[in-house]
Amino acid sequence: MARLPRLNLPDIPQHIVQRGNNRQACFVTKQDRIVYLEKLKEYSGKFEVAVHAFVLMTNHVHILATPHQGEGVSLMMQALGRYYVRYFNKIHARTGTLWEGRFKSALVDTENYFLTVSRYIELNPVRAKMVEAPAEYKWTSYHHNARGIRAKLITEHPCYLSLGCNDLNRQSAYRALFDSQLSRSKLDEIRSATNRAWVLGGEKFKRDIEIKSGVQIIFNSWGGNRWNVEESC
């Protein structure tokens, strides 16, 4: 089966997931996580990608980011992945691959899904039963977005900025979003879109993506869908 085309469009957020090969740990020590975040900051700046949210789990990473050039996310993740594998193999006296193939990503509809995906990312440690509340997990953007503990890596998206007229109001409004759980249907929707390199959003957003990318989403009569790649007219 042919590999689906990766949708890379400027100024549209992407939910990015990269997993350790065979679910093996890709972070073992505190220093591993520090190095990864430092290089994420370096390469996001180099390739003009604004990072809005992240979480470093034991064997995978979630990032919510907006590229300002079409290939920005791909260039950032390729550079970051190569550097980090060399670092990890050297420090932990190992060889071979670390990542499970190429990273996965989905375009995110800012109007309807941006803050939902941000919550999804920062709630990962809670869903994994590693902690009881997102503030208890150190390696996440929750501390910046909800608690005002500044991280130079983070660029606040207009959706986040619209939550309030100042930092304290925005942080309070953002924390309030976590008072309710994400529904099972919403979790499944986010996971499905990301795993299939799909588009997470409403019909209008999907139509806009079709026009911009030349990739048409065809809905089958039984409710499924597939890619149909066409050249733009």
TrEMBL record:
SMART domains, per the entry: Y1_Tnp (SM01321)
BP GO annotations: DNA transposition
One Pfam family per UniProt: Y1_Tnp
Protein name: Transposase
Transposase IS200-like domain boundaries: 9-124
Coiled-coil zones: none
An MF annotation (GO) of this entry: transposase activity
InterPro entries according to UniProt: Transposase_17, Transposase_17_sf
